[in-house]
């Protein structure tokens, strides 16, 4: 047999930093959209409240300046967040390169715009009641949504900045207005009130930071699981079923190198060289694909793994990297299924007249990843591999299609044993003592099926 190169069917897994950057960009855009929606809703609801309580509002502010200022602020923030959303979508690479600077600048702009709104209202209305109004709770909206940045420091910065600006403005105006007599209504703004709210704003920023950190860690863990799964897919390509892939993820320590009993299958397509010489490369590839399509399906359905394609055949393993059921019997059932399908395809004329040879052996092997950090291959080594290859070659001498070792035969159920005929112990190349082998007998199989139907 000519050993062919192993193909890689899947691209390498994505870089986790790129995934994280994409997640951050998506979260920042989502945050901008939420703020647009929330502030728009806030402006509408404030207008509704103003409509029902306009007299009370005028008794406090003596003008419409506060409601106008809030509406103008809402429009400005909506425009600002729309620009942010557009910038991230169009200049995503620039955003990645300056993500931290952008985050702090954006948080500073949003919090400071809100603070300037309150300063504007107090300066033009002469009333500090706005600093006790529900409008100051808008700070919490920015703090809560800072969690979408997935950065503890940014959330803490947002909360600390909001606390500092609110307390600074409150201290200044409570001092200024307490010494200036006026005809307007000035509710007392005590240190307990503004310092208390400042502390709550700061604590809210810390809490938002912890939430952001937890979310980020969970995202990292999820990506690690995805990365591990992609590594399994990259390592085994299309050799394994999804069920086995799941088992590998649960028992991934077995990939590092271990000894275990496995069943090795070698399959060879007879007279392949003459076929290659008489057909075009496209016809050869189409022929192999038509055969391997159902052969691989039979192997995988019986919990086997295709380890390597060998040009005119392949090597498969049952019981590694994970064991599922009776691995020897799984291998025999897969082999018989392949022989039946080859016969059916021959009879239907779907493929050129094809004969194959299969050899199976059961024994201990060393399994694990071999290679470097750049390139690794899942490898199975040991006498069991050599023995299975030698057994398969005896098919040519005996004009048979499936030969199994005595080690395989002993693992089979009685009903399956009946379809194999023993041969005289034979010397196998490279093995010192004669070995007992069994040959698959199609007639015995048909008789067994007839017996079962009766």
From TrEMBL:
Where is the Guanylate cyclase domain positioned along the sequence?
263-392
Its record classes its membrane topology as: Multi-pass membrane protein
Q: Which GO terms describe its cellular component?
A: plasma membrane
Record field: transmembrane: 32-53, 65-88, 100-122, 128-147, 154-174, 194-215
What SUPFAM superfamilies does the database record attribute to this sequence?
Nucleotide cyclase (SSF55073)
**InterPro entries this protein is in?**
A/G_cyclase (IPR001054), Adenylyl/Guanylyl_Cyclase_3/4 (IPR050697), Nucleotide_cyclase (IPR029787)
Q: Name one GO biological process term.
A: cAMP biosynthetic process
Q: Which SMART domains match?
A: CYCc
In which compartments does the protein localize?
Answer: Cell membrane
User: What UniProt keywords apply to this chain's record, in alphabetical order?
Assistant: Cell membrane, Membrane, Transmembrane, Transmembrane helix
Tell me which domain of life the UniProt entry assigns to the organism this sequence originates from: Bacteria
- Mention one GO molecular function: adenylate cyclase activity
**PANTHER family this protein is in?**
ADENYLATE CYCLASE, TERMINAL-DIFFERENTIATION SPECIFIC-RELATED, BLL5647 PROTEIN
What protein is this chain from? Adenylate/guanylate cyclase domain-containing protein
Native organism is Mariniphaga sediminis
């Amino acid at each position: 047999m000519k050993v062919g190169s192993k193909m890689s069917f899947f691209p390498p897994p994505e870089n986790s930093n790129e995934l994280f950057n994409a997640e951050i960009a998506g979260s920042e855009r989502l945050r901008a959209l939420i703020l647009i929606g929330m502030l728009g809703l806030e402006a509408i609801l404030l207008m509704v409240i103003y409509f029902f309580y306009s007299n009370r509002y005028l008794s406090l502010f003596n003008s419409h300046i506060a409601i106008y200022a809030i509406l103008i602020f809402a429009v400005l923030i909506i425009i600002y967040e729309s620009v942010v959303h557009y910038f991230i979508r169009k200049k995503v690479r620039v955003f990645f390169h300056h993500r931290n600077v952008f985050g702090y600048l954006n948080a500073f702009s949003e919090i400071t715009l809100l603070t300037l709104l309150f300063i504007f209202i107090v300066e033009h209305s002469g009333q500090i009641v706005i600093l006790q109004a529900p409008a100051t709770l808008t700070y919490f909206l920015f703090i809560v949504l800072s969690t979408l940045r997935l950065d503890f420091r940014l959330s803490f910065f947002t909360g600390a900045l909001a606390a500092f600006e609110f307390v600074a403005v409150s201290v200044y105006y409570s001092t200024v207005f307490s010494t200036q007599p006026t005809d307007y209504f000035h509710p007392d703004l005590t240190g307990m009130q503004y310092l208390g709210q400042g502390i709550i704003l700061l604590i809210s920023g810390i809490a938002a930071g912890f939430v952001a950190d937890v979310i980020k860690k969970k995202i990292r863990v999820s990506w690690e699981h995805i990365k591990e799964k992609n590594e399994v897919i990259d390592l085994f390509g299309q050799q394994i079923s999804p069920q086995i892939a799941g088992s590998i993820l649960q028992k991934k320590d077995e990939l590092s190198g271990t000894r275990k009993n496995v069943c090795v299958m070698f399959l060879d397509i007879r007279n392949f060289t003459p076929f290659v010489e008489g057909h075009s490369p496209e016809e050869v590839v189409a022929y192999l694909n038509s055969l391997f399509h159902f052969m691989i399906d039979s192997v995988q359905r019986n919990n086997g793994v295709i380890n390597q394609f060998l040009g005119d055949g392949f090597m498969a393993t049952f019981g590694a990297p994970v064991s599922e059921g009776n691995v020897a019997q799984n291998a025999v059932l897969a082999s018989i299924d392949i022989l039946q399908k080859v016969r059916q395809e021959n009879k239907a004329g779907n493929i050129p007249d094809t004969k194959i040879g299969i050899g199976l052996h059961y024994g201990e092997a060393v399994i694990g990843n071999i290679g470097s950090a750049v390139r690794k291959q899942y490898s199975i080594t040991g006498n069991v591999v050599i023995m299975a290859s030698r057994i398969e070659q005896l098919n040519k001498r005996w004009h048979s299609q499936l030969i199994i070792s005595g080690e395989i035969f002993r693992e089979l159920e009685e009903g399956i044993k009946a379809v194999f005929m023993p041969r005289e112990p034979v010397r196998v190349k490279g093995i010192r003592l004669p070995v007992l082998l069994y040959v698959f007998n199609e007639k015995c199989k048909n008789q067994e099926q007839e017996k079962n139907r009766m």
